[in-house]
Amino acid sequence: MIKHQCDESGGIYIHIPFCIRKCAYCDFYSVSDLSLMPGFVRALEREMAMRAAEFPDPCDTLYLGGGTPSVMTPTHVRRLIAAARCHFDLLPEAEITIEANPGTVSRRSLAEYRRAGVNRINFGVQSFRDDHLCFLGRIHSAQAAVQSLTWARQAGFDNMGLDLIYGLPGQSQAEWREALGRATEFRPEHLSCYMLTYEPGTPLDRRRTDGAFQPLEEARSGDLLDLTIGFLETHGYEQYEISNFARSEEFRSRHNQKYWAFAPYIGLGPSAHSFLPPRRFWTPRSVTEYLRAIDAGTAPTAGTETLTREQQIMEAVYLGLRTTGGISVATFEERFGLRFEATFGPVLARLRKDGLIRADADCCALSRKGMRFLDSVTSMLVCQEF
């Protein structure tokens, strides 16, 4: 029997699938026809009404992701926040985040987002070099990124995050150190540093397979991760997940932590996923299909699955190891009715010997060395019968 914790507040994710232009590396669902936006916002309001009964739990996060949510008008943002408060138990002190891309915001729009109730903003800066931004297919310049960050502070955002990408072809440690230094000059409360991945079917992956460039070697990308952890630590940032760093625990992404902690969340909009343990369901990866379902008065569900005990154990291991806090032994044992050391003992001994994990009676977490080998460590732990 699996026990699910019921005292964890839930989260609300809203997928805004509109982009001015899709980035070369991105495989998230998006469209460029902004004329659909007014009808889409109305559809989201209707979906919230449809889903409300499924998700009565108190929610302490609302996350507007994409796509590029910052192509929305402040009026649309205000309407979505109001609808979420109307249909869900969104707590007064909820963390309300909007993802924003430099080049799609203005001093005025940022100030109006803040007045609409957004209290956390996360910018997809990715790089402060124009040549890198061009390679990634971003629509903004380095100067636009600097301007957007300045405007956000002036608008009153005191919880601001930046996303950066490392591991570009030929990128040196000196270049990446310079990028991190540039980012920390703005003293963002949160930094996410993601290694560039080549997702199948993306323009960047096609260029790679055509031989247009040579990807950075895996070992060198691992060295850049090590550099990231050390550099940000000396600049006052605490790593709490493989790719995520915050100036203090207060500024960790409350919403994203739900994904790693098996907390419940509801996903709205096309291609959004929901998790009501142990059930997961998702919406169509198509604005057209999504709108058609809403117009027909039906909840737009494209698929659903109930996670088996084995699947839940595998996810608990993988997601727990992503965080620096690791897997809580007590929580794992209570949830699954398994003795952690007895279940994983021989593998734990080997991983300890290889210096890939830190494990004791309280938790099991990756070492800094182990962070390079998350997938391999996870595979070793879960390739057995439970």
From TrEMBL:
<dbReference type="InterPro" id="IPR007197">
    <property type="entry name" value="rSAM"/>
</dbReference>
<dbReference type="Pfam" id="PF04055">
    <property type="entry name" value="Radical_SAM"/>
</dbReference>
<protein>
    <recommendedName>
        <fullName>Heme chaperone HemW</fullName>
    </recommendedName>
</protein>
<keyword id="KW-0349">Heme</keyword>
<keyword id="KW-0143">Chaperone</keyword>
<feature type="domain" description="Radical SAM core">
    <location>
        <begin position="4"/>
        <end position="238"/>
    </location>
</feature>
<dbReference type="GO" id="GO:0006779">
    <property type="term" value="P:porphyrin-containing compound biosynthetic process"/>
</dbReference>
<dbReference type="GO" id="GO:0004109">
    <property type="term" value="F:coproporphyrinogen oxidase activity"/>
</dbReference>
<dbReference type="GO" id="GO:0051539">
    <property type="term" value="F:4 iron, 4 sulfur cluster binding"/>
</dbReference>
<keyword id="KW-0004">4Fe-4S</keyword>
<dbReference type="InterPro" id="IPR058240">
    <property type="entry name" value="rSAM_sf"/>
</dbReference>
<dbReference type="InterPro" id="IPR034505">
    <property type="entry name" value="Coproporphyrinogen-III_oxidase"/>
</dbReference>
<keyword id="KW-0411">Iron-sulfur</keyword>
<keyword id="KW-0949">S-adenosyl-L-methionine</keyword>
<keyword id="KW-0963">Cytoplasm</keyword>
<dbReference type="Pfam" id="PF06969">
    <property type="entry name" value="HemN_C"/>
</dbReference>
<keyword id="KW-0479">Metal-binding</keyword>
<dbReference type="InterPro" id="IPR010723">
    <property type="entry name" value="HemN_C"/>
</dbReference>
<dbReference type="GO" id="GO:0005737">
    <property type="term" value="C:cytoplasm"/>
</dbReference>
<dbReference type="InterPro" id="IPR004559">
    <property type="entry name" value="HemW-like"/>
</dbReference>
<dbReference type="InterPro" id="IPR006638">
    <property type="entry name" value="Elp3/MiaA/NifB-like_rSAM"/>
</dbReference>
<comment type="similarity">
    <text>Belongs to the anaerobic coproporphyrinogen-III oxidase family. HemW subfamily.</text>
</comment>
<comment type="function">
    <text>Probably acts as a heme chaperone, transferring heme to an unknown acceptor. Binds one molecule of heme per monomer, possibly covalently. Binds 1 [4Fe-4S] cluster. The cluster is coordinated with 3 cysteines and an exchangeable S-adenosyl-L-methionine.</text>
</comment>
<dbReference type="GO" id="GO:0046872">
    <property type="term" value="F:metal ion binding"/>
</dbReference>
<keyword id="KW-0408">Iron</keyword>
<dbReference type="InterPro" id="IPR013785">
    <property type="entry name" value="Aldolase_TIM"/>
</dbReference>
